């Protein structure tokens, strides 16, 4: 990675089903992110956090969460608008935006910012498809909807600050899917996205799958956004997440995947922006998941064993 990496924290948990991911940015920093990046040969700048209104300060009656609705969408849009601006400014300054979540709805902001001046592709490292809309969501949690939002589906087509689609469907590749809601399954099947599930990884190996995902995300695009949800990993390696799903990626597969991204970047500079999301320190064991998040980020930016 030749560009300076600008770390942008987003201490937000409005999109998640439980409290705690708002502490993710602190935990990942405490887990050694800056040191890890330096070992990868990257000079990071920590730009601090995007302002997120504290949940305790909200009027509890202002926006009552309802089933089938998008909970706290107003707050999430507000934060994502600020984040999108920060990401766009970072890119305009010739720096690389590294966004620390927060729940996965932060990707709505980071990818909107990253795609303002570029045709963006994306790799979604996640157990979940995150393609719900308020209409299809079983939970109403917006962290299950960021791709629906980025594609401008349903009410997300009416967000005046966002341009939709922020990313072309056929330039998105999932890697490691294993938990898809009933109605979401149809959405994934009927979409033009490429979905590599855990079964594909078992059958073909991580490196081959990630190389294919990179081919999808770079085809006809100016750059790739990597969205790394820590629940992509198996809960034995990453216990500090709010929506754990067993049967996930191992510690070694995860490093292999991000090393494959970094190798490709070394060849043709494809990486444009990245977010690392869903670390929940309350549920974690001695900050293990946040530390892993920092290590995996360093692998994406070129840290090698030898
Ligand atoms: N980024 C995440 N952790 N997403 C979890 C989504 C879970 C479920 N599919 C939902 O819509 O509620």
Query: What value does the average pLDDT take?
Result: 95
Taking strands numbered 1, 2, ... along the chain, how are they ordered across the largest sheet? 2-1-3-8-7-4-5-6
Low-confidence stretches: none
Total domain count: 1
Walk me through this protein's architecture.
With 306 residues, this protein is an alpha/beta fold. The protein has a single domain, classed as Arginase, Chain A, CATH 3.40.800. The protein has 10 helices and 8 strands. The radius of gyration is 17 Å and the shape is globular. The protein starts with a strand and ends in a 6-residue tail after the last helix. The mean pLDDT is 95. The site of arginine has 15 residues, from loops.
Question: Quick summary of this structure?
Answer:
By secondary structure, the protein is of the alpha/beta class.
Helix-strand blueprint:
Elements: E1 5-10, H1 24-30, H2 33-39, E2 44-49, H3 73-92, E3 96-101, H4 106-114, E4 120-125, H5 146-150, E5 167-177, H6 182-189, E6 194-197, H7 198-204, H8 206-218, E7 223-229, H9 251-268, E8 271-277, H10 288-300
Parallel strand pairs: 1-2, 1-3, 3-8, 4-5, 4-7, 5-6, 7-8
């Amino acid at each position: 990675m030749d560009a300076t990496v600008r770390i942008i924290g987003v201490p937000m948990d409005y999109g998640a089903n439980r409290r705690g991911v708002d502490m993710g940015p602190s935990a990942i920093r405490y887990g050694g992110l800056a040191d890890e990046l330096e070992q990868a040969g990257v000079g990071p700048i920590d730009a601090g956090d995007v302002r997120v209104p504290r949940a305790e300060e909200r009027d509890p009656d202002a926006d009552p969460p309802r089933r089938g609705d998008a909970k706290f969408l107003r707050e999430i849009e507000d934060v994502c608008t600020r984040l999108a601006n920060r990401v766009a400014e970072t890119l305009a300054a010739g720096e690389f935006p590294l966004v620390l979540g927060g729940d996965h709805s932060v990707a709505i902001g980071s990818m909107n910012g990253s795609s303002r001046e570029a045709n963006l592709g994306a790799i979604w490292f996640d157990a979940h498809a995150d393609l719900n809309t308020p209409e299809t969501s079983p939970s109403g949690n917006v962290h299950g909807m960021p791709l629906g939002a980025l594609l401008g589906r349903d009410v997300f087509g009416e967000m005046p600050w966002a341009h939709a689609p922020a990313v072309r469907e056929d330039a998105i590749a999932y890697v490691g899917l294993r938990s898809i809601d009933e109605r979401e399954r149809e959405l994934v099947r009927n979409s033009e996205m490429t979905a590599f599930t855990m079964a594909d990884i078992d059958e073909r190996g991580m490196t081959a799958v990630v190389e294919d995902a990179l081919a999808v995300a770079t085809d006809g695009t100016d750059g790739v956004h990597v969205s790394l949800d820590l629940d992509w990993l198996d809960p034995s390696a990453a216990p500090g997440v709010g929506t754990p799903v067993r049967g996930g990626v191992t510690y070694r597969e995860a490093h292999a995947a991000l090393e494959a991204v970094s190798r490709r970047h070394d060849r043709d500079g494809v990486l444009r922006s990245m977010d690392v999301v869903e670390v929940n320190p309350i549920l974690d064991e001695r900050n293990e998941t946040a530390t892993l998040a920092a290590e995996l980020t360093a692998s994406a930016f070129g840290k090698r064993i030898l």
